[in-house]
Amino acid sequence: MLELNNIESGYGDVQVLFGVSLNVQPGEILCLLGRNGAGKTTLLKSIMGLLPLKSGAIHFNGTALHTLPAHNIAKQGIAYVPQGRRLFSELTVAQNIEVGLMVQGRSNQTRERVLDLFPRLRERLKQRAETLSGGEQQMLAMARALSTEPRVLLLDEPTEGLQPSMVALIDEVTLKMRSEGVAIVLVEHHLDTVLNIADRVAFIENGRNPETVSAYDLSRTPEKVMQYLGVN
Q1: What is the DSSP string of 185-196?
Q2: Is 85 inside a domain boundary?
Q3: Among residues 9, 16, 47, 208, which one has the fewest Cβ atoms lying within 10 Å of its Cβ?
Q4: What is the pLDDT of residues 71-81, one digit of tens each?
């Protein structure tokens, strides 16, 4: 289990998170919902060790992640697909996937399994990442993360700007990972996607988590969406 206990974090002297406590179980999708600037991306970066905690603790199966450097957090089985993909643009598709495989020393069997999830990438292996379409780049970002065979997957707006068919594919792969016992923390603005695939929804408001509800309960109380996001 991934557990955050009263974490506070930010950028230098600018504090963004104030005492956030959350947990996500194996085989569960926890979605983070909140307005732009609420602290969702900061929370994911804090889990990955890309931002130091000012206070609080982050544990995964008994390991204190907040005491580890980012590269060792990745070796614990935590994978991160950041907003904007952050691919190695001048490397080929195959080389980007190879970077993921190197994190945990995974084999070609893992590579083939990932390519089976994203067949279009198999046709693009020799292409440089920067030549791919936006949807293909998102596939590659997920493929690189899944090449580590993660036990926790952090996804920061993976469907942003994608056409419906690509959104459906990303959602399908996310659900498959959940079925295989991966714990998933998802930042997502498409409410339909949230209600369709999330198990629980944690609202993030001004760097705090005022409420966490089941996706089912959220579907029955749309006023909460208006309260925290200002939309119907």
Answers
A1: EEE---HHHHHH
A2: no
A3: 208
A4: 899 889 999 99
